[in-house]
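Q: Give me the 3D complex with FE2/S2 (inorganic) cluster.
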Amino acid sequence: MPEPTLHDVARLGDLVDGQATRVVVDGRPVALVLSGGELYAVDDRCSHADVSLSEGDVEGCFIECWLHGSQFDLRTGNPTCLPANEPIATFTTHLSGTGDDARVLIALT
Ligand code: FES
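A: Here is the predicted complex, encoded as structure tokens.
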């Protein structure tokens, strides 16, 4: 099985803990989240309607859709409350290097 392609999407030191950052990978919007020192990457599109999740609030390992308030678990992509009832995609993250200059890599598959 071929190795997944890793995409270099950000410098770690440019991310703000507790916030989401929108990046576009191969034309696909991804919400990159640093929270409590953990990195997460999920589809930057709510499963309830076509709005950007990266504009919502992050709390721990959850992100809240700003439009109707559904929260999604950043680890699994599952919604934790209505109105969204479908999961969003999650992506694997990797770090290359150390410190603030470490590069954030994600795999879309
Ligand atoms: S658009 Fe996200 S919960 Fe409705």
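A quick observation: The first strand starts at residue 6 and ends at 11.
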